[in-house]
Amino acid sequence: MLPRQFTRALLLLSLVIAIAGCAGVQPQQYAGESPEFLIEEYFDGRVLAWGMFEKRNGEVARRFTVDIDGSVDGNRITLDEHFVYDDGETERRVWEIEKLDEHTYEGRAGDVVGTATGERYGNALNWRYTLALEVDGRTWNLQFDDWMYLVDEDTLINKAIVTKFGFRVGTVTLFFRRQPEPEAAQ
Fold first, then answer.
1. Residue 47 belongs to domain spanning
2. Which of 38, 56, 70, 85 is deepest in the core (most CB within 10 A)?
3. Is residue 13 one of the residues assigned to a domain?
């Protein structure tokens, strides 16, 4: 039988290792990656997106498209998003995002609880926020750990892990494509 102090120390060490293993990827790890993702440049104009929500078991529960009109005014970015779901439902979300410094952003939208925080390095941006979503007639506050990766100047991949009370509910995957500027009338 192990002495009580040794058992406690072993348990504490195991707990510290488990917590450290949950720390996950940090945005700074992408500092050297290119192309550089500046959301104020990427979303200045029209962007189309295609996405899906997968339940935690991998089943695709919903597919959707998003038409985004973005505009930039100084350090403020506005994203007017229009969703169309595979069942015909539509939804609109308007993000108001502020660039705080070279790497940090804050965002707000009508269905975001509190403030979204974003950190950007290299080709990646990590958003963290709580979204109030209607599910079966009830409002659920779901946490999003949202990662965006710029592939080239027009293509962006987005993956968000969705949780409630720390348990994984599902995953949202999106593919964004910037649209060319309309030619000026002659």
1. 34-178
2. 70
3. no
